[in-house]
């Protein structure tokens, strides 16, 4: 789905958030798609829109939902307390974080999906977004690719049976990161072109991804420790790791599990290195 087809959604949510004075940023598939398209990388598109919204209370969150239901004809989705459906059937996820959280979690009563983990969302809000103006004329703060990867590590770890697509997205972000961020790499990470420091040119993108993730996570020791532990555990599991096998599915037929292991090891190596 192209941005032009989502303009009415952008306009509606922008109007709602502006009127209610809500801070927000775009995350997940649409955010990734925006960065990919800026560099001409073709990848699967998305049919839904995900917003992370800064909320002080459950009452404030319900005010946002009610605004969209009463004034914009959105409907609630019984299977997920964090989803609304636009009048033309587009799914809009509104994921709250901030003071509404209790121990990095938001829980509502009801049926279906009523709780979400929000680890990392505050750190991304402060340190992992960039302003983007789309061809539709809408301007948003959008989670960066490194922030998207960070959140996907957390999402997979929270629900590995339901979030396997997140691993595929992490692997593709890592493999395309060099081409998507050449200027950043040449200006801020040119130490990696030293052959004595990096064995393979293909490792540079994943290493820089790890470094950029650390710039976000370093502001929360708890988040930094969790991300490091996620990567460390899968590297130690080797062939027993479903995470590594999912990475391997994104690679060429010639690749083996060791290649997938190397990619995750490169990300973790960058994440554990000193901040430049």
Could you characterize the architecture of this molecule?
- With 276 residues, this protein is an alpha+beta fold.
- Strand 3 and strand 4 form a beta hairpin.
- The protein folds into two domains: 3-143, Beta Polymerase, domain 2; 154-272, no CATH class.
- 38% of the residues are buried.
- The strands form three sheets. The chain has a five-stranded mixed sheet. It has a two-stranded antiparallel sheet with strand order 6-7. A two-stranded antiparallel ribbon has the order 8-9.
- The chain has helices spanning 7-20, 28-38, 58-72, 121-127, 145-158, 164-180, 182-188, 204-217, 221-237, 242-248, 257-272; strands at 24-26, 48-55, 75-76, 83-85, 91-98, 105-107, 115-117, 129-133, 139-143.
- Helix 1 crosses helix 3 (58-72) and helix 5 packs antiparallel against helix 6.
- The chain contains eleven helices and nine strands.
- The longest helix has 17 residues, at 164-180.
- It is globular.
């Amino acid at each position: 789905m192209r941005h032009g087809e989502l303009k009415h959604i952008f306009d509606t949510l922008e109007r709602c958030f502006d009127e209610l004075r809500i801070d927000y940023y775009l995350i997940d598939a649409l955010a990734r798609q925006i960065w990919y398209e800026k560099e001409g990388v073709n990848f699967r598109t998305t049919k839904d829109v995900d917003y992370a919204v800064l909320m002080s209370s459950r009452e404030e969150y319900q005010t946002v939902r009610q605004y969209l239901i009463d004034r914009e004809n959105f409907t609630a989705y019984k299977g997920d307390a964090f989803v609304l459906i636009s009048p033309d059937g587009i799914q809009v996820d509104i994921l709250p974080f901030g003071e509404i959280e209790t121990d990095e979690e938001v829980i509502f009563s009801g049926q279906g999906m009523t709780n979400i983990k929000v680890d990392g969302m505050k750190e991304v809000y402060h340190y992992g977004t960039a302003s983007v103006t789309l061809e539709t004329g809408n301007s948003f703060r959008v989670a960066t690719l490194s922030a998207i990867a960070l959140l996907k590590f957390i999402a997979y770890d929270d629900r590995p049976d339901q979030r396997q697509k997140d691993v595929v997205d992490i692997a593709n972000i890592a493999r395309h990161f060099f081409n998507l961020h050449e200027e950043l790499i040449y200006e801020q990470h040119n130490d990696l072109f030293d052959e004595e420091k990096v064995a393979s040119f293909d490792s540079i993108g994943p290493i820089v991804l790890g470094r950029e993730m650390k710039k976000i996570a370093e502001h929360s020791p708890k988040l930094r420790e969790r991300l490091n532990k996620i990567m460390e555990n899968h590297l130690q599991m080797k062939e027993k790791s479903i995470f590594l096998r999912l990475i391997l599915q994104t690679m060429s037929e010639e690749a083996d599990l060791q290649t997938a292991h190397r990619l995750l090891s490169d990300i973790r190596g960058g994440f554990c290195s000193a901040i430049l």
